[in-house]
Amino acid sequence: xxxxxxxxxxxxxxxxxxxxxxxxxxxxxxxxxxxxxxxxxxxxxxxxxxxxxxxxxxxxxxxxxxxxxxxxxxxxxxxxxxxxxxxxxxxxxxxxxxxxxxxxxxxxxxxxxxxxxxxxxxxxxxxxxxxxxxxxxxxxxxxxxxxxxxxxxxxxxxxxxxxxxxxxxxxxxxxxxxxxxxxxxxxxxxxxxxxxxxxxxxxxxxxxxxxxxxxxxxxxxxxxxxxxxxxxxxxxxxxxxxxxxxxxxxxxxxxxxxxxxx
Length: 262
Known about the structure:
InterPro entries: Chitinase_II/V-like_cat, GH, Glyco_hydro18_cat, Glycosyl_Hydrlase_18. By secondary structure, the chain is α/β, with parallel strands linked by helices. It has helices spanning 15-18, 28-38, 56-63, 65-73, 96-102, 105-111, 144-153, 195-207, 233-243, and strands at residues 2-3, 10-11, 89-93, 114-118, 161-166, 170-173, 188-191, 212-216, 254-258.
């Protein structure tokens, strides 16, 4: 979802995809509701904003009391529903420079139910050298464990943090096809996430008593089971590990999965 740049009311970015029925990717919001018939306890979270929406419209909305009211009222939350049944979450980038400029984590933590900490894309094709996209640890601040520690140090409640792990990888094109370096037999290289690396990341949940795991994104996992005859191997690895742990410090084991609407 996005917001109307004039009124600041929440709107569908792609109504045809969200509401129209007819298959081929249409009617996705109604399709999500169908999941309730398979698992009545499932929680469907509607995201507002994101990379494609940018930040300008949200800054304009935040500056105006009238526009803030219009934004909240456009949620149209019916009073007949139990308020305890709703979740308010926020998705933040796990980079120190972004957190310092954009987030009052102590205040946010007091308001929201969960903070989705997007600890990924520390390296990518935009870099001049290759690197692991979401390193668990490294010799600088661009790694998962450092940012978990830093987020907690900014007074975010650990039990509200859902650690975001990727289910995808990046491709790199070598700069010189003749001087490729060692072990590169082709003209490209890839970094990717495996079941093993996601399990290692999941261990941080218990180490820091976090609220759970967020995966970005569900549709980038192997949902057809083409690689090892197992559907959703990355999601399965995370949930299997969490089920084996003592997470008694939180009400329920949490795994939040997100999909990337195209």
